[in-house]
Design goal:
Order of helices and strands: HHHHHH
Oligomer: single chain
Radius of gyration: 15 Å
Low-confidence stretches: none
Length: 102
């Protein structure tokens, strides 16, 4: 149990050592993954449910960041990730198959 805590602390230390732009870029990369998983799990037409799911996961994954940014900022980041995901779905059949939209 102590080892797990030390690993988590090390990861947090490395994350917060990064410049702010890099931190945001890492979060946005993760959000692309999160919205893709939500799309796969919940499908189309479930925007509010997907947003709630992604937000809950975000709070678990980045609790410190979630405490200091507004929900509007988070929602904007999610919109950017959704746009990226839509572009990937249009251009990549492997992503289409993964999400189940082929």
């Amino acid at each position: 149990m102590v080892v797990v805590h030390l690993i988590c602390l090390g990861m947090l230390y490395r994350f917060f050592k990064l410049p702010t732009k890099e931190q945001i870029a890492k979060i946005k990369e993760w959000l692309l993954y999160a919205v893709t998983e939500a799309e796969k799990e919940l499908g189309g037409g479930t925007g509010q449910l997907k947003l709630r799911q992604v937000y809950d996961l975000f709070v678990q994954r980045f609790p410190t960041v979630a405490a200091v940014i507004s929900f509007d900022t988070f929602s904007g980041w999610v919109d950017e990730a959704l746009e990226q995901m839509r572009e990937m779905l249009e251009q990549n059949q492997s992503v289409q198959k993964y999400v189940g939209t082929y």
